[in-house]
Each structure stands twice: as structure tokens, then as C-alpha cells.
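Exercise 7. Predict the joint structure of the components listed below.
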Amino acid sequence: MPGMSSGLNANNPTIVAAFQSLLYHQGIVALVVLVVMAAAWRALRMLELRRALSGAPGPAEPWPGASALTTEAPGRRLLRVGFGLLWVLDGILQAQPDMPLGMTTGVMQPAAASSPTWVQHVANAGATVWSFHPVEAPASAVWIQVGIGLWLLVATRGTWSRLAGVAAAIWGTVVWVFGEAFGGLFAPGLSWLYGAPGAALAYALAGVLVALPEEWWAGRRLPRALLRALGSFLVGMALLQAWPGRGFWEGHLPHSALPGSLASMSHRMALTPQPSVLSGWVSAFAGFDEAHGFAVNFFVVTCLALTGAALVVGRRRALRYAVLGYWALSLADWVLVQDLGFLGGVGTDPNSMVPLALLVTAAYLGVTRLPAPGGATATVVPLARAQSLGARLGGWRLALSRHPGYFLRSVLALGSVGIVLLGAVPMALASAQPNADPIIAQALNGVPNVTDFPARTFALVDQYGRPVSLRSLRGSTVALTFLDPVCTNDCPLIARYFRQADNLLSPALRRRVEMVAIVANPVYRTGYYVREFDRQEGMQHLANWLYLTGPLPALQKAWAAYGIQVSYEPGGAMIGHSELAFVIDARGRVRSVLEASPGSGTQAQTSSLAFELAGALRTAARGH
Amino acid sequence: MLAAAGAALSIGLPATAAAGATRARAALSAVPMATSLTTTLGTWASVPMGRLGQPLNTFWQLFLVPAHGHRWADHAGQLAVADNGGLLMAGAGGRSLVVAVRPSDQLRFSAVVSTTDGRSWGPVPPLNGTVASLATGADGSDVALVRGPGGQAAVLASSGGNAWRTLLSGTAWGRRGAGRRCAPEALTAVAVLAPGTPVVGTACTRPGTTGVFVAHGKLWAPFGGAHLGGRADGSVVQVLSLRAGGGVVSALFAMGTGRASRLAEGWGRVHGPWRLSAPLAMAPHGSLVSVGPAPRGGEFVLYRVGRTGLRLAVVDGPGRRWRSLPPPPAGTATVAFPGPGVVEALAAHGSTMTVWRLGGTPAHWAPVQRLHVDILYGSSNLR
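Solution:
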């Protein structure tokens, strides 16, 4: 999965600092948005009150359909508030400092690792956006999720509320597909215990349910259909859990000292960073499952099957016990198997147990408790239902004067949309940008040194034996580095990002740029070796690529001129040499010096280094 | 002339399905690269050291004990290339030694380097792919068996520092003409019989045939007697290694599978039958640790029986039996014969190499030198 990693340590200080700085600045913007909204609400309200005191005519008529209002259905309210809080919590979790660099390797990669190749390709596309933009993407996720959560919480009814559901459904689906690799649905080892079908799918489903017309919640049809669907799902999960040969019935795998699937999972979870009390519980459960694997699985299968059956049948008395039992089982699994889900530095959400239990409970409430008729709590003003501009104005003025709380929520909903956009817009822009952010290169090698001193000349031959000196390159902007043709790791990667940087230049600029490498090996410096290296890396296809070599004294002179240390290393190691890149302008002056270490050669690093080098070349070319 | 064997065929591993009752096919495997050979400069040995379970922290060392010296010294640092992929040596009995460094990690071609004094090394043109066998002639011409990126094997030759040219590619040529009797399924080893006369060893699919071919211009003819007759006992024969010198080619043959796995050394001339040693029976699950030349044109075989038990056998000439020497110490990667009557075992543990010498009565191994090698762990890993 090539796009899955930026190749940097999760606690890289440059990235973490940039991430926190961006969050801080975006947080100020979010605060300003909310303050402006509140101030607007306050100003409009004062205006309306002043108008009322002055005896001016009030709104012509109340909003249409006001008499038909009902209170919000309890099931819908539970979904809206419950998932609103979860989204806010998830947004806050996204702000953890390990998220920028740990998300792909700690969350996305494990989720996709055992899935089919096509799923990995899909997940890799999302992970590439994240790893190429390790500051913007996680910061965007923070604001999108916090914004959706606030939106769900403050927009209680009407179009604003339904739109919040739509936003939650869309983002939940995005997270489910790219972040959770379809919740592992296509991977072996799928189990309700481990989080199938993926927490984000529950978030998306809840969003869809909130987005449905509110009238649908006034009857029992929708909640009953939801109960049946959830019940069928649980019965299916029970069957899957009972399927022999998947390692759930055994505490230990047959003919092996290895623990069974569930015990193994709990053992792994116990190793993640967490309070010792919790890890003690998880370890104890793992040990219990090792000793009583069959009994544990029998209990789980039975509970899932009975709960599922009760939900499908839908008898009220049985439903109550089923829901209570489901909550108990979910809490046990959440603590003892899923380990709460959000610990360890890269926990993105509380996993699937709480969201699924919320869905089950919302459906139960929908069946058992219908919304009360309106009047007593008529706090709803569906602004968008107004038929005309006059009516709409009358609607909001009426709302402002008689229902300031609702109006405030609508204004805050608008502010929440602003917070979502605060994340969504940079995320969309980042997704459209094919090159990785230069900050990855800076996190790896530091900021390029901007310089202005004359470049020392050299006199060597290129890969075809033609003499080349720095003087002969005068008039061109030169990217110069030093490569060992038999180097087994860094040099091929440096050549790759030089080639990628060349491709980032416009054709016109490319004609005025020379990409130059000088051999950095005292032994393998013949034309055969530089050409073999070129062939290996496809460099022969670059019209402006020069790989220079020559007699050892000439090479040593060039190395010394640019401060390149080349040394034999003991014990079968490769030649050691400095990894620097020099950008020399058309007048022969060194305009910047870049550390050229390619890191671990991930796509993100190569792209970022190429982007940085191309930028330095453009700057040097412009400076002439 | 000497030619060190590279990747070839192993024995004693579970057999694949045989085509007939009398036809057994030995399993293909890699012959270990650790070996030793002697030039006029001294005796060289290639030994893997470091963390052998981690390919990029396994570093191959190139040890030399001078012809009139007693102390081994490491020369791997002079190769100026990371050698995690392994080393193959070839010497022609004179002063020169040619070493091919197999690629690893991001490198896709083999670096080749030679020396005549053990101190300064000059590059030989690189080989595109992984060198499986390497040989050099007295005239300085080199022959290599290379497996390309697609797994296709080819025999290439170079002389005078010129680029390698392909002599033979694949095994399709063996389905017609002189190759039909053997019907080779793989190229396994190379040697240089005389200037401009390479020899190639193969794995035959037809039982009882030797599968050694010598170049006549652009044609390849069977070398020596193509048939081993009853000596092959109806099993297919695979060439593990080839060496050549003085008009004689010696080959290490593997025959049989399972409990019938055995090795035999053969000596042959262009026009004459192969003269075989007595067979060396291999345990059903035995595996080769090192093979290489022994004094007087002989061959040594270091092999493992079970998980830890090492065995060392040496054969001196045609018709002779394999002599079993006392089991070498644990960790022995190869053995060397640096002087008349001297047998030394090179045992590596991490970055320490211990040289054991066989002597005394009764013969036993005693440590004579301990070397610490500076190994730069992690130097071949990407950050």
C-alpha cells in the first residue's frame, strides 16, 4: 500500500508543531465565526425589540404550518444528540498530536491490510491524501467532525437539522470507505466483537435517519423497519460468530500454543497505551477466554442470536429486555475487547459498540414512544418551509421575537456549517493537489538554506563520455547532487525525486534546467556503472540529465569543492557520502543548498522533496 | 582455472512429482554462497555475518589469509558497495580475484570488481541482474551466469574490461541438437575451460545425463560423456558447481531425492567419460552450508544434518570415497585450506568470526584466531 505512509515518525516535531499551529489558527477562525453569528443574532433581536417598542407593525403572519407542529420524535432526538456528541468527541480525538503521521500507519493501514486488493486500492487513495498533506488533512478532519457534531446538536428540527444529517451521512461514508476500509467487511476475521460493520457506517446510517423527513419518525413504520434490519444484522453476526474454523470457539488454536482469535485480539489490545486498570481488565478477559473459549463464544453467539431475533419479531416486552441485554453485551465488548477504542494516541472514535447500541435504542424508542402532539413545546420554526420572501421574513422576525432560542440555534447551525467548511474546503483543495506538501521535506531535512555564493567549477565527463564543466552549463539553472551508482538505497531514491522534480517543471523551464549528478564512489566510476544506474532508474529518458564521472582526482576535487565527504565503510557497508543538493543559477551562483536525504522513500516523501526542489529551481531561474 | 559455484541446485529436499518410476527430480534450491578458494595471493573466504535473520543487516565478509601468513583479515570494506545480497568469488589460480556483489534493496544489478594485490580494486562492468555463478579464466576473461529481473537466466562473457555479451539465454536451446539428451530445465553453473571456452552446467530433465556443455563457437556441445549410465541410478542429475583447470572440468553432481539423495564429484575432459567419486549420501533433510575446492583438485562439502549438526566431507579424486572430517564447530559457515595439510573452519556469530583449525590426535577443532568485524547495522536500511 504505497500511499499509506509518510515515512516519518508519528511524533515528528515539525509536523506536530505545524498541525497544532494550524489547529490553533483555525480554532480562532471558528471562534470568530461563532461570535459573529451570536453578535448578528443579538443585533437582529435588539432591532426587532426596538421595532416592537416603537409600535411598528410586527410580522404579518406566523410561518405556514405552525399549527401542525409536533415535538421531536424521541428516537430521532437520541440519534441527533447521541451522534452529535460522538462527532464532537471524534473531532477532538482527531486533534491528538499523533494523528497527522500516525493515522495512516496506525489506523488506515491495519484496517485495510487483510482486505482484498481492490479495497486496499480504494483505502490507499484516501490514505495518500492524508499522507501527502499531513497537516491540512487531519486539521480538516477535526473541523469537519466538530462542525457536524455541533450542527446536529444545535439544529433540532427542520431543514437545518436534516441537512446536518446529510452532512453526517456523507462524511460518515467517507470515513467508512477510506478510513475503515469498508469496516473490514471484505476481510477475513469479520466479527461483531471486533467492530463489524464499522463504526463509521453506524454514523452514516444515523445521519441518513436524521436526514429523513421528520414525519417518518411520527409513525412506527421507519423504526420498525430499522429494528428488523438491525435484528437481521445481529442474527447474521451470530451465524458468522458461530461458523466453525474461524478460531472463535477455541481458547487456543488447535495443536498450537497460540491463543484463539478473540483471546489474541484482547491480548493485543491490552498492549496499547492505556490506564493500567483497563489493561488489567482486558488481560484478565483474554486469559478467561483462553481458558473458556467455547463458553465465551457460545454466550456471545446466543446473546446475538436472541437479541437479533427479538428485534426482528418486535414484541414490545421482549424488545425491552433485548435492548437492555444488548447494551450490557455491548458495554462488555466495548471495554474488554474493543478497549474503548479511543485510547493509544491514534484512536479516532469509541469504536462500534456505542453507535450500534444508539441505533438499536433509537429504533426501540421509535417503536415504543411516539412524539407528543404539538403546542406545549412548539419551539420549532422550519424557516425553509416559508412559501414566499414576505412569509420568510415574517417567519424569522416572528421567530426572533417569540422564539429567540430557536433562532439562536439556527444561527449557531449556520456557524456550524461555517466550521464544517473550515475543514471541508482545505480538505477538498488538498485532495485536488497531486503533490505532497513541502513540509514533509522540511520535517525530513529541515528548511533549505537560501544562499548566494559562486559555485566551484568541475571538469568531468557525462554518462556518454562528453566533457562537462560547470562553465559549460552557464546559462542554465542547475540542480547538482552526488550519487553512488552502486548505492543500494538512498541514491536511487534521490534520483527518483530529481526525475519527479524535473517533471514538475514547465517544458519551457525544463529547457533551461540541467539535472546533474556527480559520482560519489571511488571504485565504481566507469561509464558502465553510471549508465547502468541510469538504466535502472530510467534517467536516460531525461533530456536534461547528466551523470558525471571522471578520474578519481577530478572526482575528489569536485567532492571537496562542494564539501562532500566520501568514505569507505567497514564490514560490507556501502560507501558513505554526504547527501546534499545544490541549486545553481544561470550565472553560476549557488542559490540554495538542500539536504538531499530521501528518507524512507515513501511516495509522500519523494513527492514532497521533488516539489521542494522544483520550487527552488523555479526561484533560482526567476532570480536570473 | 577455478570457478566458484553460485546458485544452483540443492539436494535432500522433498521431491517434486516424478515423470516416471525411474525418474526422480531433485528440488531446486539455492546453494549457499559461503565458500573459499585459493589464489597465489592467499586463501579467500566469503562468510555472511551480522544478523542473519535480517537480510539488510546481513553483511557478507571477504576474508583473506595471505599465502605465507597465518592471520585472516577482512577485505569487505574495500569492495565499496553494500553486500547484503551476497558475494560470489572467482579466481583463476593466479593472483587475480574477481568478486561479484549481488544486488540488494533498491539496486537491481550486480557490481563486479577485481583485484590482483588484495589492496586495490578495479571495477569490471556491471551485470544486469543477480549473479548466480561466476568464473574467470587465466587470460582475465570472465563468465557469469545471471538471473535477470524476470528470472530468465543467461550466460554472459566479458574480457578486457569490456561490456558483457550474452552467450546463452534460457534453456530453449537444449530442446534441439546436442541438448536434446539432457533437455535442461535450468542453467546452474559456469566455468572457463580455456580462454574463450566457457562451460555451462545445467539441471537435466532426462535421467542419467550430466548436463555439462562446452562452447564451440556459437554452438554448445555436451562436455565429457553425456551419460552416467548406472552410476546415476536412473535419477536426474543436476550440476551444483563447476570448476575448470588444466583441461579438466570438475563438477559437483546432485542425484536422487529423499533418502536416495546423494552427491558425487565428477572429473571430465572434452573427449572422455566422466570419472566419478563414490557417492556421498545425504540425509533426507540435509542441507548444504558450503561447497568449494579442496586441495589436489578435490572438493569439500559442508552440510547440515537436522537443525544443528554439521558434517564436513572431502573427496580427493576419481573413484575415491568421501572422507568425513570431524564435525566442525557450531556456526561454521565455510572451511578453507590455506596451506598444505591445514584445514580451517570459519564460524561466525554476529560480528565475531572465529577461526578453528583441525589438528591433534585424535583430530579435533581448536580456535586459532578471533576477529571482530565492524558491522554498521542499519546502514543498508532506509530511514
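Discussion. The CA atoms of residues 18 and 24 of chain B lie 5 Å apart.
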